[in-house]
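Recall the central idea of this unit: under ordinary conditions, the amino acid sequence of a chain determines the structure it adopts. In this exercise we apply that idea directly, starting from the sequence alone.
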Amino acid sequence: MVFTDKNQIGEVIKYYRKKSGLTQAELAEKIGLSEKHVSKIERGQNIIKLDTFLKMAEILNFTLEDFGLQKTSTDSPNKSEKINSLISMINKCSEKEYTLIHDLVAAVIKNSNKL
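Accordingly, the structure predicted from this sequence is:
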């Protein structure tokens, strides 16, 4: 199952933070955020930016597989280019746009599972 919900993502991050023995304040200092922002990410109130996610992954030692994502060897170069392009566009979004994109992708995934 792929975690697409902010609350689920926050719960996984919180689990790995605690497993690493770090407080929210310690993690925040290591990644250059406020403790309040880390708290909001863990509670699903803020959407995590990709660069922040990658910093957390390095510090907390989690992988995409922990969020239900797996890279397959059958990925075409065209698919990789589209993914990289999408990530690039998302990195330039505002918080409001992140929310809209998140809700749109969640709806697409939900509806595709019904087919």
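DSSP finds six helices and no strands in the chain.
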